[in-house]
User: Fold this.
Amino acid sequence: MYWYKTKLKGAAVLFGGIVLIACWSECKPDVKESGASLKYFDINGYFAKDIARLNKLNKPVLKTVTHNAVSESKTVHISDWELELSLFKEADINRPAWKDSYTMLDEDGLIVYRAKYPELKMRQMLIKQDKGKVKWILIYNKTPKNILYQTAEKLSYFPDSLYIIDKMQKVRLLGSNFYEIKGAIAK
Assistant:
């Protein structure tokens, strides 16, 4: 009887391992396209470079946080620009699964991306460039409607001067909240 339990345990462990490996290989995150074949503006690469630059400069920032019209301001040195601008980097649409999910308009230095499908969080992105240099970026995110909650974000970025994160959140049982984080970078 002992040998039967041992073989059963061994088979269960082996089966569990096979299932775990199969699930793990299916749960890999989307692999982003290489820089040479990006279909859309490389927002992730742009912010990676700008974050490194801002970390190096270490300029003071007048940071204002507002929650439902109650504000507090303080001059700070941002120790982790990666975290501070993470919402901007998360708006990267260069995933293979999304390669045909956005329309693009490129006219007079203004690039506009619009989502084709309502289930996409990043709804619209506007990038103003002058001679290849980014002047400003606006990103509009919105969660698809559901019965429990709804969120909308407007992310504004003006290199070397200002970033603004506006977020509206409606939770069915808790009501609405409005948040704004504004960072004015010292000259």
In short: The first strand starts at residue 60 and ends at 67.
